[in-house]
Amino acid sequence: MLIAITRLAEKAGNDADVCARFGHTCYTVSPLRADLREEAVGRFVEDANAGAFDGIFFTSALPAAVVAPRLHLPRPARIVAIGPQTARTLEESGLEPETLPTYYSADFAPHMGAWLQGKRVGIPRAAVPNPALLQAIADAGGEACEYQVYDLVPSGEPLDTGRADAVLFTSASSFTTARWERREGQIVIAIGRVTAQAMETAGVVPDVVGDGSLTGTLAALDLRGGKRAATEHLPGVPQAGLVVVDKPRGPSSHQVAAWVGEMLGVQVGHAGTLDPQVSGVLVVMFGPAVRLAPVLLREQKEYVCAMRIHGDADRAQIEETAREFVGRIYQRPPRRSAVKRSLRIRKIHDLEVLDVDGRVVLFRVVCDAGTYIRSLCHHLGLALGTGAHMQELRRTRSGLFTEDKALTLHAIRDACVAAAAGDEAALSGIILPPVLGVGEMPRIVVRDAAIDAICHGAKLAGVGVLSKTKYRKGDLVAVLSEKDELVCLGEALVDAEAYKPGDTGLVLAPKAVMMAAGTYPRGWTKKTGQKKA
Predict the structure, then answer these.
(1) Of 469, 266, 490, 293, whose CA–CA distance to 398 is shortest?
(2) Residue 453 CB: number of other CB atoms within 10 A?
């Protein structure tokens, strides 16, 4: 597909490379041009080099390219960038930026958190009002020093969009100032929610709305033609299953799960939310398997994290400090978390320093579910005496599911395309049976004759049990068929040692039934409870 992307001519960046990864080509159309305000640029550089700012926030690659080469900061300052392109531009000038977890300036204040209190932040940006950003910094106790270093001027020329299969608007202003004509059959795309709102206000409903990043938007475009009704399964999709996804950086966990659901034609849920800028293992469930969420959520997690410390420390000191954090620790969720910020205890099972490169520390951590790695980095920095923040994070394991078994969205899409074309085996390596989600839970294997009654909600008696592992009364137990199919999750009514298979008496109450009634023939009559002949 040939895509026309609205950009300032100075900001085309690596659009072509990103599009190529999705099998598309692109070209830039420019409804706006940037006119630099050299005087404002000079004032900002002079103030920054005089040590006027505790932090500098770059909202796009253009001011980064203009300002960064002129900076010679007399004291350390936190450098923050929106998006990887802006970060790369700063790195080319020798700066060490941290990248916002998402792609919106509204996330700056939540990302910086308590650090903003009493700090001055320099912001070189376009002459476009953003009062919400300034107010958020003020509300956090900081002082925003905004320098409007360039104007956005409409080009006034008609855009060359007629030859494109799709037109992607990358900002609200690029849409509102554009002169263009939509041809029949042309796909119109908004890169994010703000752009989409501007388009809808003008009476243009976008065919695709992205997550604010080019990568996430192109992924959404790829899925546009493959949406199905939630009740219309793709051929070969079972009634329940798990898909282990290698979530990319950019889109939210909810968006990634939704894309998988659209490809398979099913309603989905996911276990263990990852922030948009965090990649790695995300378990997506559909059908009755969504009832496994409480089990999957409590499983151990493993992450690899790049942490940036704010001062110098040698590897031996870092490793010694890391060892002190193995065991039970106290944590309070970060300010940007959606949960209540109450103090909680979590266990760090292992924390290994993998590499130290200057002030960037790469470590692997195995931890309890619900551990906040962003908070862990902050506390490691305090213990080192340097301060620190999380720069990049990847989840490498969730329970028994590891990153080497996780599938990219492209791999899932390819399998779905093959399945739709009649390849019945295409999904066999994509969809996992629900039983794999129970991990190392205690379990009971039951007779075939007992399964249908359980599927109708009946309690399990010892006479229906073939084998069992150790568990205590009140534990959550997985009930399996002889074929290793997951029948249900249930609450143990007695200790496993309190009965033998074949004994009378009730031993388990179903809590979450995974198997459809009628999968196995009824083995007991309704009236007497006696086994059929």
Answers:
(1) 293
(2) 22
- pLDDT digits over 441-453, tens only? 999 999 999 999 9
Nearest-angstrom CA–CA distance, 93 and 78:
15
Q: How far apart are CA 337 and CA 111, in angstroms?
A: 10
Given 47, 151, 165, 275, the catalytic residue:
275
This prediction has a pTM of: 0.63
On whether both 362 and 310 belong to a single domain, the answer is yes
Strand partners, 368: none
CATH classification at residue 45: 3.40.50.10090
From 289, 300, 295, 239, select the one nearest 264 (Cα to Cα).
239
Beta pairing, strands 120-126 & 327-331: unpaired
Residues 6+ apart with CB under 8 A from 242: 283, 284, 285, 289, 292, 431, 432, 433, 434, 436, 437
Same domain, 27 and 43: no
Told to judge if 495 belongs to the known catalytic residues of this protein, a careful annotator would answer no
Q: Which two tokens stand for residue 99?
A: 């990248």
Q: What is the pLDDT of residue 187?
A: 94
CA 27/CA 167 separation, integer angstroms: 10
How many CA atoms lie less than 13 Å away from 500 in the CB half-sphere?
Answer: 0
Query: What are the pLDDT digits (tens) for 261-296?
Result: 888 888 888 888 888 889 999 999 998 898 898 888
